[in-house]
Amino acid sequence: MNSTYPTSARGPADHEVRDQILAAATEHFRHYGYAKTTVSDLAKSIGFSKAYIYKFFESKQAIGEAICATCLRQIETEVSAAVAETDLPPEKLRRMFKAYTEATLRLLFHDRKLYEIAASAATEHWPSVLAYEERIGKLLREVLQAGRQSGDFERKTPLDETATAIYLAMRPYLNPLLLQYSLDYTEDGPTQLSSLVLRSLSP
Amino acid sequence: MNSTYPTSARGPADHEVRDQILAAATEHFRHYGYAKTTVSDLAKSIGFSKAYIYKFFESKQAIGEAICATCLRQIETEVSAAVAETDLPPEKLRRMFKAYTEATLRLLFHDRKLYEIAASAATEHWPSVLAYEERIGKLLREVLQAGRQSGDFERKTPLDETATAIYLAMRPYLNPLLLQYSLDYTEDGPTQLSSLVLRSLSP
Questions:
Q1: Most buried of A11, A78, A92, A121, CB within 10 angstroms?
Q2: Residue A161 at interface with chain B, using a CB cutoff of 8 Å
Q3: Cα B91 from Cα A78, distance rounded (Å)
Q4: According to the UniProt record, which residues make up the DNA-binding region (chains A, B) (predicted)?
Q5: Shortest CB distance from A185 goes to which of B166, B168, B195?
Q6: How far is A10 from chain B (nearest CA, A)?
Q7: How far apart are CA B155 and CA A57, in angstroms?
Q8: pLDDT tens digits for range B25-52
Q9: How many other CB atoms are there within 10 angstroms of residue A77's CB atom?
Q10: Residue B48 and residue B146 share a domain
């Protein structure tokens, strides 16, 4: 092969270069922000040519998307672990709500510059965000189903109606755009809303 | 009296001048925005001296506060009327939530420039906003009390706990900062959340 780019035989594999670009871009965005950075800035800071970066990512948004997706996966790993800690559906629901809030706060608000990517993602409905929101809905329905089967939750209300309403109640703590205005409530809000939700689910 | 300002005997009463300044300021803010306007701009546009305006309002924020308070009173008049239309506490709760959302949308979002004042007021916790939020809590507790007395609502949960949680569920539709990111949900959200809240209140 006469490629001028490194191949697996002569250099790092594609996924390694991708990871290298993403790690460098994450650092760069942390310091300089997402909005103000161009692909040229990134190329300069990583020491790659712009053309080389474009071989792996078609745009700055594609890089932002990949960083955002990694961050959302991290939140979901924490939430899954929290939900798996208990077999009781009401407790699963409480922990799910609490873990989403805490992980989102830590990953997006601890570092304002990552918040900026998340805010763009949420405002512009990036595919990674839409998929994330769907997975939240799926997890919520699974917990609700488990509670209906165990007899902990009522079964009269259609499952989708229940899941949608609970999602709306949780939204101020899940969506970074709303969470920025809910910071005074993150200590007690999720607990108080979980209790309200659990009262609404009692058979 | 040797005042150089108009007195009730020789000109408009103080409250009339105040209202005149407020009407002109509201119009001015509508067109040019709140943040970018100075008291000098207002004075020029109304045709008063800056000193004369300062006789009635100590700052631009004091003018913004008065406009904001008028707007909040208008929302509350609509909500009170909606709540008074029915004697059934569950229905009062539904109408309260719906009326707050609709009135806030119409008064603050129909006109982006009034939204700007409301957003400053909410971000900076202006006294008019704090008082407004307290009155929302008071109305909510009254409706809850009525429902507990009529037997429509459960009485086990402490009233304040119930009221706080319901307020948190309603917040994305009451607070203009959150409402700007809830516009996709204003059609069905308040109804779905009211139903969830009413399920949580069932005795």
A1: A121
A2: yes
A3: 40
A4: 38-57
A5: B168
A6: 50
A7: 58
A8: 988 888 888 888 899 999 998 889 999 9
A9: 12
A10: no
Note every long-range contact of B80-88, with CB atoms under 8 Å and residues 24 or more positions apart, other chains counting: B80/B139, B83/B139, B83/B143, B88/B150, B88/B152
Of A157, A189, A193, the CB nearest to B199: A157
With CA atoms as reference, report the closest residue to A124 among A165, A64, A169.
A64
- B96-112 as b/e, with b when 16 or more CB fall inside 10 Å? bbbbbbbbbbebbbeee
To probe the interface with A, which of B188, B196, B197 has the most A CB atoms within 10 Å?
B196
Measured between CA atoms, the residue of chain B closest to residue A202 is B200
Rg (CA), chain A: 20
Q: Please give the residue range of the domain that contains residue B39.
A: 14-58
Report angle CA A184, A200, B173 to the nearest 5 degrees. 45
pLDDT at res. B9: 53
CA atoms within 13 A on the CB side of B200: 28
Residue A49 lies in a domain: yes
Residue A85: count of CB within 10 angstroms of its CB = 11
Task: Give the C-alpha separation, B185 to B193, whole Å.
Answer: 11
How do residues B124-147 score in pLDDT, each as one tens digit?
A: 999 999 999 999 999 999 999 999
Could you tell me if residue A33 is inside a domain? yes
Most distant CA pair in chain A: distance in Å? 69
Number of domains into which chain A is organized: 2
Q: Which residues of A touch B182 (CB under 8 A)?
A: 171, 178
Structure-token pair, residue A156:
């009269």
Residue reference for tokens 């009211």: B194
Residues A100-138 have pLDDT tens digits of 999 999 888 876 678 888 899 999 999 999 999 999 999
Amino acid occupying residue A33: G
Contacts of B133 in chain A (CB under 8 A): none
